Amino acid sequence: EEPASVLTLGELIALVLDWRSRPTKLFIETKHPVRYGSLVEIKVLAELQRFGIATPASADHSRAVVMSFAATAVWRIRRAAPLLPTVLLGESSRYLGGSAATTVGATAVGPSVKTLREHPDLVDKAAAAGRATYCWTVDEPDDVRLCADLGVSWVATNHPGRTTAPLAS
C-alpha cells in the first residue's frame, strides 16, 4: 500500500488558483517558535512568488493572507511583501485594534471568538485603525451571527457548510 502523501503549500496554492467557480483567498498561518526562525516566512513568500501572488496590486485583490501569533513573523512578511495582507493573531490583537498590530504592520487583527465575545468593540477599534478582523474558531451559530453583526471580515471554522447557514437567514 502506498503511504499517504502530504499536500505541499505549492500544491495547495495550485488548487486554489485553479478553482474556477470564484476567486478564493488562501489563508496561511505560520507557526512559531520553530528552530528555523525566519526561514518559514522566506519559504512561504518564495512559494507565493513562484505563483505570482506575493505582490498583489492591492491588499483587496490579494489571493493570499499570511497570519501568525508571532509578531516577528508578521513583521517579516510585511517588510518583504508590503501589499500582502497580514493578520496578527491572538491576545495582542486585543490591545489595539492596536499598537502591536501597528508596530508590525499587520493589516488585520485576529482575536479568538472567546476574546471577541468579551470585547466586541475590537472590530470597531480595528476598523478605526484601518484594519480588518479575522476571528477564530467560529463554530457555533450564535458566534457566527455575532461575527456577522459586528462586521468581522473573515472567520475560521471547523464546519464551513454549517457555518454559512446562520448567515443565509
Protein topology:
Layout: H1 9-18, E1 26-30, H2 39-50, E2 64-68, H3 71-80, E3 86-89, H4 99-104, E4 108-110, H5 113-118, H6 122-128, E5 132-135, H7 141-150, E6 154-155, H8 160-168
Parallel strand pairs: 1-2, 2-3, 3-4, 4-5, 5-6
Helix pairs in contact: 2-3, 7-8
- SSE string, helix = H, strand = E? HEHEHEHEHHEHEH
Instruction: Estimate percent helicity.
Output: 40-55%
Low-confidence stretches: none
- Please state the CA-atom Rg, rounded to the nearest Å: 16 Å
Brief rundown of the structure:
This protein is an alpha/beta fold.
What does this structure look like?
- This protein starts with 8 loop residues before the first helix and ends with a helix.
- The chain has 169 residues and is of the alpha/beta class.
- The model has no long low-confidence stretch (mean pLDDT 89).
- It has helices at residues 9-18, 39-50, 71-80, 99-104, 113-118, 122-128, 141-150, 160-168, and strands at 26-30, 64-68, 86-89, 108-110, 132-135, 154-155.
- Strand 5 (132-135), helix 7 and strand 6 form a beta-alpha-beta unit.
- 30% of the residues are buried.
- The chain contains eight helices and six strands.
- Strands 1-2-3-4-5-6 form a six-stranded parallel sheet.
- Helix 2 (39-50) runs parallel beside helix 3 (71-80).
